[in-house]
Amino acid sequence: MYGTRSERDLVFLVSQFALEAIAAPANIMINQDSKPEMPSSEVMCYLGCGVRHVNGVSLSFNQEAFSIVNGSPQLLVPEYVAAYPT
After folding, report:
1. Which of 12, 21, 39, 75 is the most interior residue, by most CB within 10 Å?
2. What is the pTM of this model?
3. pLDDT digits (tens, 9 = 90+) for 44-55
Protein backbone atom coordinates (compact mmCIF):
# COMPACT_ATOMS: atom_id res chain seq x y z
CA MET A 1 0.00 0.00 0.00
CA TYR A 2 1.11 3.54 -0.64
CA GLY A 3 1.38 5.99 2.21
CA THR A 4 3.25 6.74 5.38
CA ARG A 5 2.44 5.40 8.82
CA SER A 6 3.39 7.03 12.07
CA GLU A 7 5.03 5.08 14.87
CA ARG A 8 1.70 4.33 16.55
CA ASP A 9 -0.44 4.33 13.40
CA LEU A 10 -2.26 7.44 14.57
CA VAL A 11 -1.62 9.12 11.23
CA PHE A 12 -1.77 7.49 7.83
CA LEU A 13 -1.08 9.59 4.74
CA VAL A 14 -2.58 8.22 1.54
CA SER A 15 -2.10 9.48 -2.00
CA GLN A 16 -5.25 9.98 -4.03
CA PHE A 17 -4.38 7.07 -6.32
CA ALA A 18 -4.41 4.67 -3.34
CA LEU A 19 -7.68 5.76 -1.70
CA GLU A 20 -9.57 2.60 -2.60
CA ALA A 21 -6.97 0.51 -0.74
CA ILE A 22 -8.02 1.95 2.64
CA ALA A 23 -9.37 -0.91 4.75
CA ALA A 24 -10.09 0.75 8.10
CA PRO A 25 -12.32 3.72 8.91
CA ALA A 26 -10.67 7.11 9.37
CA ASN A 27 -11.53 9.88 11.80
CA ILE A 28 -10.46 12.74 9.55
CA MET A 29 -9.75 13.29 5.88
CA ILE A 30 -7.80 16.40 4.86
CA ASN A 31 -7.36 17.86 1.40
CA GLN A 32 -5.47 21.05 0.65
CA ASP A 33 -5.21 22.96 -2.61
CA SER A 34 -5.64 20.12 -5.08
CA LYS A 35 -9.30 19.48 -5.89
CA PRO A 36 -9.78 22.45 -8.25
CA GLU A 37 -6.92 21.12 -10.38
CA MET A 38 -8.08 17.48 -10.37
CA PRO A 39 -10.21 15.98 -13.14
CA SER A 40 -13.84 15.76 -12.04
CA SER A 41 -13.66 11.94 -11.96
CA GLU A 42 -10.81 12.11 -9.41
CA VAL A 43 -12.71 14.57 -7.22
CA MET A 44 -15.75 12.28 -7.24
CA CYS A 45 -13.53 9.31 -6.35
CA TYR A 46 -11.97 11.29 -3.50
CA LEU A 47 -15.36 12.39 -2.13
CA GLY A 48 -16.86 8.91 -2.52
CA CYS A 49 -13.96 7.44 -0.59
CA GLY A 50 -14.60 9.97 2.17
CA VAL A 51 -18.26 8.99 2.38
CA ARG A 52 -17.34 5.29 2.62
CA HIS A 53 -14.34 5.50 4.96
CA VAL A 54 -14.47 8.64 7.12
CA ASN A 55 -16.38 8.38 10.40
CA GLY A 56 -15.35 11.85 11.58
CA VAL A 57 -14.82 15.00 9.58
CA SER A 58 -13.54 15.92 6.16
CA LEU A 59 -11.50 19.12 6.03
CA SER A 60 -11.01 20.62 2.60
CA PHE A 61 -9.48 24.00 1.94
CA ASN A 62 -8.88 24.91 -1.66
CA GLN A 63 -8.49 28.07 -3.67
CA GLU A 64 -11.74 28.80 -5.44
CA ALA A 65 -10.58 30.96 -8.34
CA PHE A 66 -12.45 29.13 -11.13
CA SER A 67 -9.54 29.98 -13.41
CA ILE A 68 -8.73 28.55 -16.80
CA VAL A 69 -5.70 26.26 -16.47
CA ASN A 70 -4.22 24.58 -19.55
CA GLY A 71 -7.41 25.39 -21.47
CA SER A 72 -9.80 23.91 -18.89
CA PRO A 73 -11.68 25.66 -16.08
CA GLN A 74 -10.84 24.67 -12.53
CA LEU A 75 -13.57 22.83 -10.63
CA LEU A 76 -15.77 24.58 -8.10
CA VAL A 77 -15.32 22.25 -5.14
CA PRO A 78 -18.56 23.22 -3.31
CA GLU A 79 -20.59 22.06 -6.31
CA TYR A 80 -19.03 18.60 -6.08
CA VAL A 81 -19.22 18.36 -2.28
CA ALA A 82 -22.93 19.21 -2.38
CA ALA A 83 -23.57 16.04 -4.38
CA TYR A 84 -22.35 13.79 -1.53
CA PRO A 85 -24.13 13.10 1.76
CA THR A 86 -22.68 14.44 4.98
Report:
1. 75
2. 0.69
3. 888 888 888 888
